[in-house]
Amino acid sequence: MVEDLETSLFLEYARRKMAFEYDNEEVGELAVKILSTLIERNEAIPDETLALILGISATEIRRVLHVMHKAGLVGLIRESTDQYRYEYKWFINKDFIRKFLIQHINDVAAKLMRRINTLSTTTLYICPTCFRSYTLDEVYEYDFRCPRDDTELVQADAPSEIAFLTSTVKNLRREETG
C-alpha cells in the first residue's frame, strides 16, 4: 500500500497510542494492520471479517477496535441484519483521517497557546535535567532546586520560547489549512 503523508502520520500515531495504551508494541502493530486493511478496503467491515482477513482471533480484533474507537481512530456503524440482530462494522477513510489530524493539530496548538499565555504572564523556572517548569512561588518553596532531581533551576528565556512557540503554532495552522 502506498501511503501519503497524512495516512503515514495517522498510522504512526495509532501505532504509538495503542502500544502505549497496552504497554505492548505488538498491539501497536496489530492496530496498524487493522487500520491499513480498513484503508485499503475503503468500506465498513465487520470485526469477524477483519479477523478472517488478518488471521487473528475476533476477540483480539474487537478488543483493539474498541480502544481505537474510544480514541477516535476508527468509526463504527450499526446495521440491522434481520429483525432482532445487528451487525457492527468498522470504517476509516481519507476524510476521517484528515478530520482526525486536524483535531489533533488543534489540540496541540491549544496546548502551545496555553504555554505561551503562561510564559507571558508568569515567571517560570525550568529544571535543565527533567525539563519540568515551576512558578516563582514554587521556586522559592523548593529553594531554587528541582524537587525531583535536586538540580538547580534556571529562569526560562520567555521571549525566545514565546517566539519559537508562536512560530510553531503558525506552522501548525498552516498545515491545518494546507
From TrEMBL:
Record's keyword annotation contains Metal-binding: no
Domain HTH TFE/IIEalpha-type: 6-98
GO molecular function, one term: DNA binding
Keywords: DNA-binding, Transcription, Transcription regulation
GO terms under biological process: regulation of DNA-templated transcription; transcription initiation at RNA polymerase II promoter
The keyword DNA-binding is annotated on this UniProt entry: yes
Pfam families: TFIIE_alpha
SMART domains: TFIIE
Assembly with partners or alone: Monomer. Interaction with RNA polymerase subunits RpoF and RpoE is necessary for Tfe stimulatory transcription activity. Able to interact with Tbp and RNA polymerase in the absence of DNA promoter. Interacts both with the preinitiation and elongation complexes.
Protein family according to the UniProt entry: Belongs to the TFE family.
Role noted for this protein: Transcription factor that plays a role in the activation of archaeal genes transcribed by RNA polymerase. Facilitates transcription initiation by enhancing TATA-box recognition by TATA-box-binding protein (Tbp), and transcription factor B (Tfb) and RNA polymerase recruitment. Not absolutely required for transcription in vitro, but particularly important in cases where Tbp or Tfb function is not optimal. It dynamically alters the nucleic acid-binding properties of RNA polymerases by stabilizing the initiation complex and destabilizing elongation complexes.
Written domain comment of the UniProt record: The winged helix domain is involved in binding to DNA in the preinitiation complex.
Name of the molecule in the record: Transcription factor E
UniProt organism field: Vulcanisaeta moutnovskia (strain 768-28)
